[in-house]
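Box 3.1 — From sequence to structure: Cation-efflux pump
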Amino acid sequence: MTQPHPQFASRLALGSVLVACIVLGLKFLAWYMTKSVALYSDALESIINVAAALAAFVALRVAARPADENHPYGHTKAEYFSAVAEGVLIVLAAISILRAAIPALQNPVEIAASYEGLAVNLGASVLNALWATVLVRQGRALRSPALAADGRHVMSDVVTSVGVLIGVLAARLTGWYFLDPLLAMLVALNILWSGWQLVRESVGGLMDAGVDKDTELRIRTILSQHGEGALEMHDLRTRHAGRLTFVEFHMVVPGAMTVEEAHAICDRVEDALRAEMPDVSVTIHVEPQEKAKHHGVLVL
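Predicted structure (token representation):
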């Protein structure tokens, strides 16, 4: 399976910067036209989107660098730093929104809420939704934490923007102007949750969290099906580093097997893993039969 070149991810991140700047301008225009606190909170989050897109672009440029003497495993973990930074920025955005919304909730004011301003904000949300879809799909295809995090953040922005638009329109039609700052506070809470999710996932990558259960089962199945000649594989360990997956395990072979025969099994297993998981780095420690632990992966 052919994987897009890492530079493609950088170009997508640069596109995110451009889209985020356009959306930022549209949302501040919508706020200027309506003077809505909720729309102001929506515009503030777009500032965070611009900063996050810039962070993702820089991280992806670093992650695309090949392995060197000081970084023999490559630079792919740089993407996690971007995702963590984005989570922190989201929290700061939520605090800014709450600071604007709480006083407005105590003293609600009439919303100008011109329908033209709401239409401008809706247009920005549509643009965001289209781009978020692209980022999420490509983030999964490229196995890029930075792109996937950016896409989920933008999609979260779309959901909150639609909710804000509905609420502001309802406040304008009913005269219940307290709905405006109340919605802004709900937006802030949703943003906080989104930031927490991003930070939790990214910290897991920085802490060398293992692959998910389904991926581990796939790996074990491949080892069992393609390890003919070996007796067992044990002490399986996995971890993610951006788009790369590292797989390490011990392979037990008959004591009389030659190094050349054992190496041939290793090559076969590695080829099978790479066919299923293109961005995988495999380390195999070969052991004689007396080292068998009689658990782990038994070869079919």
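Summary of the box: Residues 1-5 have pLDDT under 50 and may be disordered.
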